[in-house]
């Protein structure tokens, strides 16, 4: 069948089936931070872009039915002995978002994300609001619109990248990734957006006919703006430096001018949004960003060892969580499935088509590796500053695998640039990859059924 010979078509086929099943099969509000994300989306749909702080909590007033809806489903999250069924889901449809009865909701870190991080979800909720006030259907519409964006962006990323299409596919179809795309989380935006950005970076890097002209500057500046405003992911845009300098034109002046035109709009808007957010940030777990940043600057070696200890302690957990830990971090796959998925990554890294056997210089490899390291340290440090108690140097807490998914594509492609098999790729690799995905999702739906229904 042609659908299995074209990677992007296989992605759409597989993603639609599995993601729609996740939308309807995962009980409402069981995703990571889903209640806070949904409250933020509802606030945005009502034009409440700016948040407020009440009793040292950042958030907004929303219909009390949303909070009642959360309380209705919350017991099942904290107690795995409590299960759901169709009748309970049907009953939850009756929660009506009456704007006359309001309740303040703590939106915590979600309030720091710009409206761009919730654009598809907000459009979906706003459209549904013309037809219904049911919290369940509003949530469902927000999920479906985010899913449409996730699949469309993923399809285009896989289609245009000249290298490692199956790596893109495997990352985008990891059960964790796809479940985020089938939720209302901001992660469901940043993951496909990052994949699409890397696809364009590779396209302009390896296509001899393409140059960074005015059109390309405009495209990459839009990416920089979007990445800067979605979960503070500006540093991902620095992977643009992987594109060879000669693609920008002759001379350092042209190179620097085009880079400035690409980076400055995103950086400026990110700084402007952070100024707007000033006063909304509420430190958690006794953290003090100013004190902790000063500690890092005064004790860089100690902090470096803290990061290394965190990697040693959490690497396997991060791998598990990135590949497939669903719900509120309580739905796990069988351990062999994680190993099988890692093997699928390895096979697709080593065996590549003739078109994918591209040459990159040692400098490009070094720049790529350095940017991966910078992004990783930034993600970890951001959590250290905002979640970890001051002077705690055993490890950095609360680093979850899903936070690292946006930089997983460059990590895997870098390994692909380094390790090259003398043999080419054949259909057996594609079939093996499809089988691994099938096994992973059969296990995923079994795990969801056992956790929430059985």
What can you tell me about this protein's structure?
It is a single chain. The chain has 454 residues and is mainly α. The chain has one domain. Helix content is 62%, strand content 4%. It has helices at 7-25, 34-45, 64-78, 86-92, 119-128, 135-160, 165-172, 175-181, 187-206, 214-229, 252-277, 289-298, 300-324, 335-350, 362-387, 408-418, 427-452, and strands at residues 52-54, 57-63, 102-106, 325-326, 331-332. Helix 6 packs parallel to helix 9 and helix 12 (289-298) crosses helix 13.
Question: How would you briefly describe this protein structure?
Answer:
With 454 residues, the protein is mainly α. Helices cover 62% and strands 4% of the residues.
Which SSEs are present, and which pair or pack?
Elements: H1 7-25, H2 34-45, E1 52-54, E2 57-63, H3 64-78, H4 86-92, E3 102-106, H5 119-128, H6 135-160, H7 165-172, H8 175-181, H9 187-206, H10 214-229, H11 252-277, H12 289-298, H13 300-324, E4 325-326, E5 331-332, H14 335-350, H15 362-387, H16 408-418, H17 427-452
Antiparallel strand pairs: 1-2, 2-3, 4-5
Helix pairs in contact: 1-6, 2-5, 5-6, 6-7, 6-9, 8-9, 9-10, 10-11, 12-13, 14-16, 14-17, 15-16
> How would you characterize the largest beta sheet?
3 strands, antiparallel
Radius of gyration: 22 Å
Give the CA-CA distance, first to last residue: 36 Å
The average pLDDT value, as a whole number, equals: 91
Number of domains: 1
Helix residue percentage:
55-70%
- Number of helical segments with 4 or more residues: 17
Report the structural category. Answer: mainly alpha
Unreliable spans are none
How many beta-strand runs? Answer: 5
> Per DSSP, what share of the residues sits in E-state strands of 2 or more residues?
under 5%
Form type: globular
Strand order of the largest sheet: 1-2-3
Q: What's the helix-strand series?
A: HHEEHHEHHHHHHHHHEEHHHH
């Amino acid at each position: 069948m042609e659908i299995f010979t074209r990677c992007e078509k296989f992605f759409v086929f597989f993603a639609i089936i599995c993601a729609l099943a996740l939308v309807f099969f995962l009980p409402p509000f069981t995703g990571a931070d889903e209640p806070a994300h949904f409250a933020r989306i509802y606030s945005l749909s009502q034009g409440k872009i700016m948040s407020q702080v009440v009793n040292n909590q950042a958030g907004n007033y929303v219909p009390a039915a949303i909070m009642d809806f959360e309380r209705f489903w919350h017991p099942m999250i904290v107690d795995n002995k409590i299960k759901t069924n169709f009748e309970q889901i049907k009953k939850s449809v009756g929660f009506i978002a009456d704007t006359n009865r309001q309740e303040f909701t703590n939106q915590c870190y979600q309030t720091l994300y710009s409206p761009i991080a919730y654009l598809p979800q907000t459009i979906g909720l706003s459209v549904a609001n013309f037809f219904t006030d049911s919290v369940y259907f509003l949530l469902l519409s927000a999920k479906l619109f985010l899913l449409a964006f996730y699949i469309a962006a993923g399809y285009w990323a896989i289609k245009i990248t000249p290298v490692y299409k199956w790596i893109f596919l495997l990352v985008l179809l990891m059960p964790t990734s796809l479940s985020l795309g089938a939720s209302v989380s901001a992660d469901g935006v940043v993951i496909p957006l990052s994949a699409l950005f890397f696809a364009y970076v590779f396209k302009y890097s390896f296509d001899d006919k393409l140059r960074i002209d005015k059109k390309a500057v405009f495209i990459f500046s839009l990416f920089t703006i979007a990445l800067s405003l979605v979960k503070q992911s500006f540093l991902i845009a620095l992977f643009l430096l992987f594109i060879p300098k000669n693609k920008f034109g002759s001379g350092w002046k042209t190179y620097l001018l085009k880079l400035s035109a690409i980076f400055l709009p995103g950086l400026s808007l990110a700084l402007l949004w952070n100024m707007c957010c000033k006063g909304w940030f509420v430190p958690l777990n006794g953290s003090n960003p100013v004190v902790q940043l000063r500690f890092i600057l005064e004790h860089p070696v100690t902090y470096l060892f803290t990061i290394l200890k965190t990697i040693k302690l959490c690497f396997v957990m991060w791998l598990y969580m990135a590949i497939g830990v669903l719900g509120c971090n309580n739905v796990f796959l069988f351990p062999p499935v994680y190993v099988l998925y890692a093997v699928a990554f390895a096979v697709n890294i080593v065996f590549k088509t003739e078109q994918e056997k591209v040459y990159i210089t040692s400098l490009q490899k070094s720049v790529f590796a350095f940017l991966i390291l910078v992004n990783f340290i930034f993600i970890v440090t951001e959590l250290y500053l905002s979640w970890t108690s001051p002077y705690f140097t055993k490890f950095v807490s609360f680093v979850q695998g899903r936070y690292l998914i946006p930089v997983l594509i460059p990590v895997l492609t870098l390994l692909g640039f380094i390790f090259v098999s003398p043999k080419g790729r054949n259909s057996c690799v594609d079939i093996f990859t499809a089988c691994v995905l099938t096994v992973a999702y059969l296990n995923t739906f079994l795990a969801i059924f056992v956790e929430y229904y059985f």
